[in-house]
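User: Sequence in, structure out. Go.
Assistant: Echoing your sequence, followed by the structure tokens.
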Amino acid sequence: MKSHDKLAWRLASILQKFNNGERFSLEELASEFNVSARTIARDIQDRLAFMPIGKENGKYFLQPYVLGSLGFKDLQNFAFLSGICGLYPSLDQNFIADLLNEKISRAYLVRNEGFEKGVDKALFENLSSAIIKNELISFTYKNKLRSIKPYKLVSNNGIWYILGVEQGSKDGLLKNFALAKMSEFKNLKKSFKPDPAVLELIKASQSKWFGELKTAILQVDKKAKEYFLRKPVLNQLELIDEDEFHLIFRVKFSYDDELLNVVKLYLPFIKIIEPKSLQSKLKETLRQYLKELV
């Protein structure tokens, strides 16, 4: 059995197997794709959670009423929902067929930056239902009971969030809540009327979902220039100065960890110039990390 260490290819192949009416266990797929059974379980239970998948005698299968109904358009929609449309130069029918061709697909190798583990499937489905039906929900978040009008489930940097407006909020501010930090979820079975302004905001820039944009000044060593610029991971990256050894950038970010996580990736070739508060926060994080190593 050949090894297929490609997330997009693996998911597409599993979809094709389901659509062909095949039944298989986690262990069988793990052996075929040379990954762990836990990885296959995450594929089926999290990444393909939107599909009507059944399980019987340890075998997974696609519910009979949808067999044969998946086509290239469905694969394109799946790629769009999964945020991988820009991964390939094209996702037309011919290119997808090539991706699913075992001989041709050996030319590709896709590495991803990882996804959140352990997303609760029942919670995911209940949130989806509440969004579709425009029903109020409640849950405990950061030790506080919240009552929310849910609008959208969003995956941002591999982490799932629910976007919503708190019931009774005077400013109608769109907020985000990480699913992993939610507890005591309830569907209140009370309908609400979606706000058109909120719907328009959700269609706008992703960064607006996570509050007002902040500004930072970064100093990047020219030794890391090519790699840093090859894959833009921050909003509105603007080169504002440079000298013989460094590049100075102005960047926009929504929340502290968004910027800090990027900076950590490029250490020791990057430095936060402004804001000083974030520079201090990074130093304290690194200090605590080094302290724990001793």
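User: And one key feature?
Assistant: The CA atoms of residues 115 and 158 lie 4 Å apart.
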